[in-house]
Amino acid sequence: MEKLSNYINGSWTISQENNLVDVLNPATQEVLGKVPMGKATTADVELAVKSSQKAFISWSQVPVIQRIQPLFKLKQLLEENKEELARTITMECGKTLGESRGELQRAIENVETACATPMLMQSEFSENIAKGVDEFMIRQPLGVCACIAPFNFPGMIPFWFLPYAIACGNTFLLKPSEKVPLTMQKVMGLIEQIGLPEGVINMVHGGKETVDALLEHPDVKAISFVGSTEVARYIYAKGAANGKRVQAQGGAKNPVVVLPDADIDTTSRIITDSVFGCAGQRCLAASTIITVGDQKGGIKEALYEAAAKRITGYGLDENVEMGPVITQASKTRVQQLIEKGVSEGANVLLDGRNSAVSGFEKGNFLKPTILENLDLGGELIKTEIFGPVMSLVQMNTIDDALQFINGNNYGNMACLFTSSGAHARRFRNEANAGNIGINIGVAAPMAQFPFSGWKDSFFGDLHGQGRHAIEFFTQTKVTVERWLQDWTRKF
Ligand code: NAD
């Protein structure tokens, strides 16, 4: 198995790093590729930034309407190659084919939205703000913009940034997650065909050393990061200390509140899809399910039934509803967290530990787990599990639930299930989270809206996607001009 190449200045370039780490299929442990990781990737970063910086000089001067033309071609190629890309995502990341197709659709929608950049970048002009004086604001690109991506959406997350960055006139340098580098490797093969000048998009593989080189490089002007909170906090601090614009999306622990007036069938179906979809490895996965008041309809039983019948297996099988978690270490961590919950007094209603899948005995499989009676003062209630575990909690009132949500360190998403408009309206107003779902289990904003995490789920001001992306990838310049009529020669 050959080591993965970087894509620099329009060519596939061999990394200067010889330390190689296996990329494993989480269902089979088959080695899919070898990714360079180590100090020598710093030299790869140097090469890529040089190329990005050179390309920026001319790309930033290309009219915006021409800058978006390659995006139309990219949309077409992503659509034509969707099935192959979906299989690659499933093989390296473990999710089901349906989930892989879904994330690619979201990637394509971001490309489409970025095609509106000629309008989204339009500026403001005020005439005659003083006698003979006009004032206007324009948006100009920043320069080299780098993106550091996580493992859980290899085909989607780079697209929260990439199409907007280049449409605004920047150049873009991607470092994919070392756990899932193959999807963007394939996407770069498509990007090669869309007619972009050399160096407008570059890709460098690697890990921490590669990231640090990006954070320290004076020619990198902006960093878009998505990953765990610990690393997001580090990236934000180090990037800012080095004078960069940073948006850093972090982890999550998403509460979902079920009121007694919620429809049981749809609610239980939607919540189990949210908790167990992508094997719980979504930053918008529902985690703590808070049932409120006197639940006469049997929500607990309905959740149990929906979870217990979920088919776990290799995602390439179309019948499978839940794939493995990303690594053996991740599986062990989730099992230990379940044990931690038990040690804190939780009852295991449904136990998905040690659940091998026939034919895939080496896979990192866990089956759906449901814990109940969690200690609200314990550790597990606060910890992001990032695996297929539902925590059930009972509370007396919606006030208790809101207080619990607002005491949460994370603020990625909060959801409410109800048939009451008044409760929904109050929840939307009072819940301290950046993405709110009402009768929705995964409140993922569409491309036109910002992906609005709060608190420890986001460090920065401007989020990915839509108008926020346009603002993040441009800096404003205001010009004040005086032209008095008396100065003009009369004709
Ligand atoms: P991670 O933080 O381990 O890795 C993310 C990226 O950072 C990778 O490219 C990795 O190479 C790099 N990295 C890792 N450790 C580093 C270090 N010490 N210094 C510098 N760079 C480092 O995250 P992950 O495990 O790939 O992804 C899962 C996490 O991402 C979860 O916490 C999840 O909630 C979060 N996530 C958040 C969002 C969101 O929108 N808020 C979306 C997806 C995932």
Description of the molecule:
The chain folds into two domains: 6-250 and 457-479, Aldehyde Dehydrogenase, Chain A, domain 1; 254-438, 3-Layer(aba) Sandwich (Aldehyde Dehydrogenase, Chain A, domain 2), CATH 3.40.309. Helices cover 35% and strands 22% of the residues. The protein contains 16 helices and 22 strands. The chain has helices at residues 41-59, 64-67, 69-80, 82-93, 97-114, 117-120, 162-167, 182-191, 208-216, 229-241, 264-276, 299-308, 328-343, 398-406, 421-430, 466-472, and strands at residues 6-8, 11-13, 20-24, 31-36, 124-130, 133-141, 144-148, 171-175, 201-203, 220-226, 245-249, 254-258, 286-292, 347-350, 369-372, 389-395, 410-411, 413-417, 435-438, 454-455, 458-459, 474-482. The strands form six sheets. It has a seven-stranded mixed β-sheet, sandwiched between helices. It has a six-stranded mixed β-sheet with strand order 9-8-7-10-11-21, sandwiched between helices. A three-stranded antiparallel β-sheet has the order 5-6-22. The radius of gyration is 24 Å and the shape is globular. The model has no long low-confidence stretch (mean pLDDT 97). Residues 148-153, 175, 177-178, 207-208, 211, 226-228, 231, 234, 249-252, 283, 384, 386, 412, 451, 453, 457 line the site of nicotinamide-adenine-dinucleotide.
Distance between the termini: 77 Å
- Total strand segments: 22
- Give the C-alpha Rg: 24 Å
Structural class: alpha/beta
Tally of helical segments: 16
| CATH architecture assignment of the largest domain | 3-Layer(aba) Sandwich
CATH class of the largest domain: Alpha Beta
